[in-house]
Amino acid sequence: MPCPALPEGFDATDPDLLHDRVPFPEFAQLRQTAPVWWCPQRRGITGFDDEGYWAVTRHADVKYVSTHPELFSSTTNTAIIRFNEHIQREQIDAQRLIMLNMDPPEHTRVRQIVQRGFTPRAIRGLEAALRDRAGKIVAKALTASRDGSFDFVTEVACELPLQAIAELIGVPQEDRLRIFDWSNKMIAYDDPEYAITEEVGSNAAMELIGYAMNLSAARKECPAKDIVTQLVAAEGQGNLGSDEFGFFVLLLAVAGNETTRNAISHGMHAFLTHPEEWERYKATRPATTAEEIVRWATPVVSFQRTATQDTELGGQKIKAGDRVGLFYSSANHDPEVFTDPDRFDITRDPNPHLGFGGGGPHFCLGKSLAIMEIDLIFNALADSLPDLRLAAPGPRRLRAAWLNGIKELRVTHP
Ligand code: HEM
User: Fold this and answer.
1) For ligand 1, atom 36, which residue shows the shortest CA distance?
2) Which pTM value belongs to this model?
3) Residue 4 φ then ψ, to 5°
4) Whole-angstrom Cα distance, residue 340 to residue 326?
């Protein structure tokens, strides 16, 4: 049934919606008038196909779907990486090896293993090194800046998430630019400026997987005291196979890198356009800041599920096989849950946002790491670059279906 207020042909997954208009007025319309709405076609931008899907826009419904994997499966159409058909046929069933695309009990097995690398102790163990790196990144941006201006995305936001993943899995720092390059190619194919074909993106993914599989083979032969060893070669605790490990690193390179980079870029943009909040941050450094940045920016706009059986959601009859899009961006501005939802408020507490997912089995594995990285970078900026200003022409956005990304954010400093 058409939603009366929406423009003809509206598709909530259209990346052009993101350009400079977050939070979208269309989502407010949907939440009010058709919170579970059948979008009859997709414009093909996400690359899955052109079939319709249910757009789920209210906080409560997004949570419900996320926490009922028996009704809403992740095994079809959830993937955020595309692989070309050649790779699918000739090598392995690539999508099935990414944990985001698994359901329990297979997902539970893999999650239990990879969680070993993400214990609070493991994440705390990275803090001192990452604090040091955050300080150096900000200092380097200052010296690299010409005419008192620089691109915040390349000089600052890109750096820490990559270094954190390299640190976490023990990738030698000299290889991190290769991972950066592969990861960019995998994600940017919707953006015409990058002119990256699906084949280039897909090949980049396979190169990264090959790299990780070699790393895993090396640790199996010669165990070390690192997370790779824990995941692939620890005795008697259940391990990941080499290909499973390869796909896990692939997931980290996208799920842990691009997301955090964009949270940092959006956080900076939010501070530059809300100078009173930046003053407040510099004075008091509230511990609630990073969560509000993730709510405000919602780097992951949406993920999908597929109904396993006929069911009901928000008063709508969902048929087995129907696809369901979970719009975290919309849920994070739901006035039923958030007071003054369109206000950027770094002391917001409680802040039950769904930027890291709706709380089900796939809830973001790297949340604590991401929050730590965001805290560290803004602390370093407040210490060393406290007077940044937005330079013209404002942020240039990435054109990607599920990611709310910023490609360039020029800033000036006195
Ligand atoms: C899953 C967001 C940072 C690793 C997810 C999901 C979201 C998300 C929305 C899916 C949740 C669901 O389907 O219920 C974010 C955001 C980040 C971030 C917004 C940064 C601000 C990270 C980092 C890492 C990471 C730093 C690791 C280094 C993962 C993994 C999954 C995941 C492995 C899949 C978990 C599973 O399938 O069980 N993330 N993430 N993420 N994230 Fe993050």
Assistant:
1) 362
2) 0.93
3) -55, -35
4) 22
Provide the sign of the torsion angle of the four alpha carbons 354, 368, 103, 83, taken in this order. positive
Give CA–CA dist 3/35, Å, rounded.
10
* The pLDDT of residue 81: 55
- Residue 46, both tokens: 């996400």
Based on its alpha-carbon atoms, the radius of gyration of the chain, rounded to whole angstroms, reads: 21
Give the pLDDT of residue 14: 73
Among 85-94, 164-173, 196-205, which range has the highest average pLDDT? 164-173
Q: For residue 251, report the distance from its CA to the centre of ligand 1, in Å.
A: 9
Angle at 118 between CA 117 and CA 121, to 5 degrees: 100
Average pLDDT over residues 134-162: 91
Is 64 close to ligand 1, i.e. is its CB under 6 Å away? no
Q: Which two tokens stand for residue 235?
A: 């005795």
Determine how β-strand 323-327 pairs with β-strand 53-56.
parallel
Q: How far apart are CA 142 and CA 122, in angstroms?
A: 31
User: What is the DSSP pairing of strand 72-73 with strand 311-313?
Assistant: unpaired
Helix residue spans in 222-337 (DSSP H): 227-232, 242-251, 258-273, 275-284, 289-297, 328-331
Tell me, what's the pLDDT at 268?
Answer: 98
**Residues 382-404 pLDDT 10s:** 999 999 999 988 898 887 777 88
Give the mean pLDDT of the chain: 86
Give, rounded to a whole angstrom, the gap between the first and last alpha carbons of the chain. 54
Helix H or strand E segment including 311: strand 311-313
What would the pLDDT profile of 58-69 be if each residue is shown by its tens digit?
A: 999 999 999 999
Q: Is the CB of 109 under 6 A from ligand 1?
A: no
